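Please fill in the sequence for the structure shown.

STRUCTURE ENCODING:
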């Protein structure tokens, strides 16, 4: 409950960065969904924006709230993307993909002038990797990706949905949650090694992407990492 308050605090604080006539990238996950709900209120009050969405769920919520949504291929440049994260370190490196949407989220972030992360304070960590690293993989040959990861000493498991079947992403792929906590390699090398395995679409590691991190606290305070 208090973590929810911290998420809402961060989401609300990001609203001031959105102005009329902007193209806004919408992230996924609970914090991004709080942001979408606040944005819907602003649109009701007259804010005029176009949204580009990183998941079917975000698109559904935005459209339900009468936000005008465009396909990413129908816009040139996104003015700002606001999204959550699972872990962020002091260099603003992030692990994302808890909502299985990191591939689209990264595409949006790269297509944006600015990406702003909104997180509750529990997401700020000294060292990334306490949580598993989501890796999106093609269904074809997916077991071989897992075997290769094991050869690299990374344990992993395929993410399941609520019915305990393998989770399918919006891109019709699978997610491997990879334990990187025991690796001595740098995050950059871990990312590069995993990206090179045939069948891997992308990892949930984001480097040099977040321009700003808005951190919400349970007591309503906000801190900014610039
Ligand atoms: C979805 C994400 C989310 O931003 C991340 O999982 C954080 O989620 P939440 O705001 O629910 O804590 O990367 O793929």
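FILLED IN BY: designer on duty
SEQUENCE:
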């Amino acid at each position: 409950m208090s973590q929810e308050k911290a998420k809402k605090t961060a989401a609300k604080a990001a609203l001031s960065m959105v102005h009329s006539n902007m193209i806004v990238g919408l992230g996924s996950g609970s914090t991004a969904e709080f942001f979408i709900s606040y944005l819907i209120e602003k649109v009701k009050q007259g804010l005029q924006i176009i949204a580009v969405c990183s998941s079917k769920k975000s698109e559904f919520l935005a459209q339900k709230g009468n936000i005008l949504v465009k396909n990413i291929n129908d816009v040139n440049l996104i003015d700002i993307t606001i999204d959550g994260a699972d872990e962020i370190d002091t260099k603003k490196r992030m692990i994302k993909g808890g909502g299985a949407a990191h591939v689209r989220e990264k595409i949006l972030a790269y297509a944006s002038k600015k990406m702003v992360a909104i997180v509750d304070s529990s997401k700020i960590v000294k060292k990334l990797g306490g949580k598993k690293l989501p890796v999106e993989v093609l269904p074809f040959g997916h077991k071989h990706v897992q075997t290769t990861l094991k050869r690299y000493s990374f344990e992993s498991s395929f993410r399941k949905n609520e019915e305990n079947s393998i989770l399918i992403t919006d891109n019709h792929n699978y997610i491997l949650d990879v334990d990187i906590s025991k690796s001595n390699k740098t995050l950059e090398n871990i990312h590069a090694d995993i990206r090179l395995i045939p069948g891997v679409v992308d990892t949930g590691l984001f480097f040099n992407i977040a321009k700003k991190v808005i951190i919400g606290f349970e007591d309503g305070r906000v801190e900014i990492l610039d």
